[in-house]
Write a structure and sequence with these properties.
Length: 195
């Protein structure tokens, strides 16, 4: 075999090997990026589900939309003895030691006269309770939150249906606790589980 052919074979083998190594490095980098994007996507999805969950929870607790009453706000903030008193109290808080009782009273005056929270109907409340339980059973991230929320609702409006839903959520929590866990614990419920 001539030395030229040997050199050509070695050069071709080196080129193929380097191309293979470069392809492997690119594949690993792409796999890592896809894994990172999957984690980001899961976090975004969990955030959207949690935001919807908290909105539904306010419905389950019979709280509707919160509306700012513009006429009451403009009347409250118009020049007069009330706004003068508020300005004096706030200026005293800014200049001297903070009195939290005064700030709390000011907050209650402003909140009580300007913001209205409308209650929801009993049918909407019951539907929201069912949705909270369904989300808790479907998403392990929300199981414990739904369980606690339904216990709170059950304190104010006790019903056998609430007890059934709470037991189902407890069973789901126990089932998740018995499942084999990954080495790297991904879910928050694993970190928050009590020993």
């Amino acid at each position: 075999m001539s030395p030229t052919i040997t050199v050509a074979i070695v050069a071709a083998s080196a080129t193929i090997a380097s191309a293979f190594v470069a392809a492997c490095v690119q594949y690993i980098a792409k796999a890592r990026e896809e894994k990172r994007l999957a984690v980001v996507s899961r976090v975004e999805a969990d955030t959207r589900v949690a935001a919807s969950f908290t909105t539904i929870m306010s419905r389950a607790h019979a709280r509707g939309d919160v509306v700012l009453d513009e006429t009451a706000t403009s009347a409250l903030l118009a020049e007069g003895p009330l706004i003068d008193q508020l300005r004096r109290e706030l200026a005293a808080q800014a200049a001297g030691p903070i009195d939290y009782d005064v700030l709390h009273r000011i907050d209650r005056v402003l909140e009580g006269t300007t913001v209205r929270t409308f209650a929801v109907g009993i049918a909407e409340q019951k539907a929201a309770i069912q949705v909270v339980a369904a989300l808790g059973l479907q998403h392990p991230l929300l199981t414990r939150a739904a369980w606690y929320a339904l216990q709170e609702v059950n304190q104010f409006n006790s019903a056998p249906e609430h007890q059934r839903l709470i037991k189902a959520l407890q069973a789901r929590e126990q089932h998740d606790a018995q499942r084999p866990r990954l080495k790297r614990k991904q879910r928050a419920s694993y970190w928050l589980a009590q020993p």
